[in-house]
Write a structure and sequence with these properties.
- It is a single chain.
- A hairpin with a 2-residue loop joins β6 and β7.
- The chain is elongated, with a radius of gyration of 17 Å.
- The protein is an alpha+beta fold and about 140 residues long.
């Protein structure tokens, strides 16, 4: 049992390092492990890769919209589709029902389907596929 916990802690620490996270939390079968970095991990700026001109209008998140955000239930890497060449689970303009899968979050080498906690129309996608997300970070805004 002790080796399993040690292995889980080492995997969480590796996940933090790989994705420049400051904190990781994992719970399974009543055992909860939380790893917090001692100092801030600097994040290198990443230049955006533009393959074709795309017209987009950012959707600001106002306080009234904040209550309509679908939040990340865990720390990990978010994926907006099942595979790189697949269409996204949801996009702006789609209607989602409570319980619909809206994205995947990879944590501890496991892909976790993230379900909508409420129904509504997707008015903003607030994360990029492949980016790290924190616990309670807004992922989508619904109307």
């Amino acid at each position: 049992m002790q080796n399993i916990k040690k292995q889980a802690i080492e995997e969480l620490a590796d996940l933090m390092k790989t994705h420049h996270l400051s904190e990781v939390e994992y719970e399974e079968n009543g055992t909860r492990i939380r790893v917090v970095a001692k100092k801030e991990v600097p994040v290198s700026p990443v230049a955006p890769v533009v393959t074709a001109p795309v017209e987009t209008t950012p959707t600001p998140v106002t306080p009234s919209k904040a209550e309509n955000n679908l939040l990340s239930p865990m720390v990990g890497i978010v994926y907006l589709s099942k595979a790189p060449n697949e269409p996204p689970f949801v996009k702006v303009g789609n209607i989602v029902k409570e319980g619909d899968t809206v994205c995947l979050i990879e944590a501890m080498k496991t892909f976790n389907p993230i379900k909508a906690t409420k129904s509504g129309k997707v008015v903003a996608v607030l994360v990029e596929s492949g980016s790290p997300v924190e616990y309670n970070q807004p992922l989508f805004t619904l109307e």
